[in-house]
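Revision sheet: structure tokens.
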Amino acid sequence: MSLDLLPIHPSQGGAGDSISRRDGSQPKPAWLKVPLPGGEEYSRLKNMTRELKLNTVCEEARCPNMGECWSGSQATMTLMVLGDECTRRCRFCAVKTVDAAAAPDPDEPKNVGVAIGELNLGYVVITSVDRDDLEDGGAAHYAECVREIHQRSSRTIVETLIPDYTGEPLATLMEAEPEVLAHNVEVVPRLQRKIRDPRCSFERSLETLAGARALSKEVVTKSSLMLGLGEEHHEVIESMERLRGAGCELLTLGQYLRPSQQHAPVIEYITPERFEEYRTLGEAMGFQHVASGPLVRSSYKAGELFAERFVRERRGLSSPAEGQL
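Predicted:
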């Protein structure tokens, strides 16, 4: 499963680059304060997910942006398929973990399609838990969710934020033709074994992204890094370069926030200025778009708006406003 965020090591910059909290005693800086969820649109979306028995990563991963994303006329959400139990134990993630999860709901693909059709979205993100207990990792079920969306809401651009599928499971998912294929490397290579489940690796994640591009020349690839877990400045830059080398086109960078005392601690809070520096560096590397900021997550409204425009331009599609989709 995945969330996303990021930090800078105090030895790599001067005052103001980050706020160290190695003793865990300092409060969150002002730029991380967000409004509480609420309002009519929030209630509508919450009721819809309950009625259709759908999970959202917004809730399961305790995303701090729910108050923004689930309100207003352009409300967005990230649906999470294949259940709400993950078979991996990453130290940053709030999703509950088990050795063997419940069988996937056979009605879920249809319910996902119905929900997206009713919401009439121009862009949607579908993610999933890791399902190592299933022979194909749940790829066939996941692909059916994508097909249902395309069938019931042809105007909707679909981003799939997938586990580290490779080989046949990746091919199965790609046959459903998601417009954007996202997979998060999460942290710099040195922190992989410390923060992610031992079955994950930076190299395997790059294989997933590169494999998607090999299977489809049209698909847009995307990844994300979390900062604030003790990485050094040069490690962030090197990770970004390796992602570009794998053909990754869209990148998000954000601040890691600890879900509970049982999860990996925050080492540093990175300033908005440092995130802006990473954005500039990433665009100079050739990324089509870099969303970089303390509250940025892989499923981030501003980034999704860019991704939607980018996909429509690449494929010669009309915008929803023109009523031609």
